[in-house]
């Protein structure tokens, strides 16, 4: 069954309100690795959560739009950006449901890091709209769980796309794309109960061919 936008928003608000912080506050390692090698421009962070990736990008000269369905997450992101000394004009925080949100303008980089949702979220059209907003020569980065973390509820998350399937979502959006990275990376992580585990992430970097 597909949840309504309001159901999705309520569920994420409840999750964020269950704790003062959910995420570590550190930018995702794959984003740091990939974006650290790119010339800064305009970036779009899909499902930016508490804002660590957007803040990291802004600190490296990117002008960022961070989109999330949770206003609570965005309020935390805004506070952290202010604490980090980021000028407000360098980050736009947009509270919207990505299943219907249309990017305005064009971007040199879009990233979807762990844009997972258990509430009837159809990922392919969201990725396709982001892909359509990428300029020639620009990049789209997807980082997602290749296997569910042991502490997650696998039943709720259902089947996870493979790295190859993530890459195809970008290609089917139209335009000519080069697959720069399509792989599974392993990393050590700490779960909500402090438990340690090795996690497997899909890391997919697609480059839109220059005209
Ligand atoms: C697993 S968290 C990842 C957060 C962040 N990207 C990170 O890596 O730490 C997924 C995020 O996507 C957001 N999200 C889920 N479904 C969404 C939707 N339909 N529209 C906008 N944001 C959504 C959630 O609110 C949450 O902040």
UniProtKB/TrEMBL annotation:
InterPro entries: Methyltransf_25, SAM-dependent_MTases_sf. Coiled coil: none annotated. Residues 44-138 form the Methyltransferase domain. It comes from the Bacteria. GO terms for biological process: methylation. The keyword Transcription does not apply. Keywords: Methyltransferase, S-adenosyl-L-methionine, Transferase. One of its GO terms (molecular function) is methyltransferase activity. Gene3D superfamilies: Vaccinia Virus protein VP39. This is Methyltransferase domain-containing protein. It comes from Paramicrobacterium humi.
């Amino acid at each position: 069954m597909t949840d309504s936008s309001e159901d999705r928003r309520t569920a994420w608000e409840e999750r964020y309100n269950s704790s003062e912080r959910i995420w570590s506050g550190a930018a995702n390692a794959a984003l740091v690795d990939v974006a650290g090698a790119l010339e800064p421009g305009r970036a779009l962070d899909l499902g930016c959560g508490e804002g660590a990736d957007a803040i990291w990008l802004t600190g490296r000269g990117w002008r960022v739009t961070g989109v999330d369905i949770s206003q609570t997450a965005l309020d935390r992101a805004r506070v952290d950006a202010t604490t980090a000394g980021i000028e407000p004009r360098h980050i736009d925080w947009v509270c919207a449901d990505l299943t219907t949100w249309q990017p305005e303008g064009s971007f040199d980089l879009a990233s979807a890091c762990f844009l997972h949702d258990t509430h009837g979220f159809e990922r392919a059209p969201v990725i396709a709209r982001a892909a359509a907003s990428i300029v020639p020569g620009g990049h789209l980065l997807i980082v997602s769980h290749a296997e569910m973390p042991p502490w997650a509820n696998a039943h709720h998350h259902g089947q996870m796309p493979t790295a190859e399937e993530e890459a195809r979502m970008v290609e089917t959006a139209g335009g000519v794309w080069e697959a720069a990275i399509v792989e599974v990376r392993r990393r050590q992580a700490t779960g909500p109960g402090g438990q340690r585990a090795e996690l497997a992430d899909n890391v997919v970097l697609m480059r839109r061919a220059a005209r």
